[in-house]
Design goal:
The complex is a heterodimer of chains A (299) and B (287). Chain A is mostly helical. Chain A has helices at 2-37, 53-58, 74-105, 108-123, 126-141, 153-177, 181-189, 194-205, 207-223, 226-231, 250-258, 263-298, and strands at 62-63, 70-71. In chain B, 42% of the residues lie in helices and 22% in strands. The longest helix of chain B has 27 residues, at 2-28. The chains are: A mainly alpha (299), B alpha/beta (287).
Amino acid sequence: MKFRKQFERTVETLFFVSALASILSVIFITLFILIEGLPLFFHSATDYPPPTFFEFFFGTEWFPTDTPPKYGIMPFIVGSLFVTAGALVLAVPIGIAVGVFIAEIARGRAQKILRSATEILAGIPSVVYGFFGVMMIGFFLQNFDDPIVNYNAFSASVILAVMTLPTIINITEVSIRSVPREFADGSFAIGSTHWQTIIRVLIPAARSGIITGVILGMGRAIGETMAVLMVAGNQPTIPTEGFRSRVRTLTMAVVNDMGYAADDHRVALFTTAIVLFAFILILNLVTQIITRRSSIKVQ
Amino acid sequence: MKKAIVLLSLLMVAGLVFAGGQQEAGGDMGDGGQQSIRLSMGGSTTVEPIITSAMEIYRSEVDSNAELSYDAPGSSAGIRGLLDGTYDLGAASRKLKDSELEGGAVPTQIATDGLAVIVNGDVPVDDMTIEQVASIFTGEVTNWSEFGGPDQEIVVVNRDEASGTRGAFLELVLEAVYGDEAEFTLNALVTESNGNMATMVAQTPYAIGYASLNVLPRLREAGGRSLSINGVKDDIENVIDGSYPISRPLNVATVGEPEGDAKVFIDFLLSDRGQEIVAEAGYLPVN
């Protein structure tokens, strides 16, 4: 009896330590990038003054090895938002449609196959997506009469769309399922068709869940590095030719330069990472607010 | 709660002890009776094929216990790593910059390389003057119609800023034509290695880039071509006799004159066997 109690105590402690470790990791990583990145604005290793907040965020020129160096990350912010927006335009309608289809329309084997296909999609490593993008999307684009360069924002958006689909599909499916059955029954009882019930009742009722899924997908798209690095063209200028333009995202900027960056340049990469971190943090906060609101409503 | 804290601190102590042990074990190595060389090297992606096969051959033919490693983050990163103490030997596919020489880096040339101007198979041009090449890479000329080709945008492919190949091309082509203020156009794809440059140019319609001579076989296989410059083909012979205008030294660098393990390995690179390796890798031996 005594042994059993002690055993339980030990297991509880182990779990507690594990929980603590994950919280500590978040805290340490946050502190680390802040400590490494913020000094960019306060002192400079060269004779030139450090960049101001304004120059850093709204500067359009990234010449980290010039004298004087220029650290403007606007092209990367625009690049990240641009490819992410493109990905969402493609992935949101398809993702919601597939999620609703799995939850409401598909039955039996079709449902099972679709669900496991989505799970497999979520498990494919991003470097494979990138390679697929270079080979297949590039090949497709070059078969127009007027060939298009295969490294561009469009390829990146398509790849990111495929990568965000599983998140959107899964969460849409789950939230459609969690709509109380009475809602659908009531809708049928007043003579609505299945289609009308889905569009007018189920999707609006599952709205907050679906939006959460979209925002989580957006987080994945903004943070993705390897796949976009392989297809987006890596050009450090603000995209001006729509989806034909080659872009460099925040993540690509960090990876591209980190091998050789020194002094202020290295610090500037951490500052870029802070910006990326802030984006993800904002997205997570928005998700939490939406989820909390909806749970209050249900109560 | 109390227990949790005890457990946590135990874990941390265990971690520290383990880390300490690791370091000590590392420090003991190399004190054995045998005089095996131990070098961590890094730098240029162009020099990488030479050093990696030299490492293999050194281990199989000279000393199987030698501990040799090579990273390829680019020439600038290699020399910076050398000056920081990360590497014992840095490799650069260009002349060392004044700032690097002032920092104490001493270069030893181990090979010579030509830089080929490479184009996609679609490009209808076979020969350019060095001025024309420079005008494309500065962004002054942006359409193939200027060279009698179709009305298509020129897709410039450039290397990243850490690249020695980029530094050498800037100096030998852009600065040679436009003076020291010359800069690459920003309107370009950017890639991070010599090999990837060849693949990208071969795959991208109407693309132009530049790469070390040793990637040419791979480039041709993938469907790309290289241009002759001022009417001179980019053959090894033309690089040797100096008639091909774009060539550069491949250097390894040490802090101060080479000595100890670094000298042993540099001497191997400069020996007949080492220079054979240079030639096999597709570059020009120095002697």
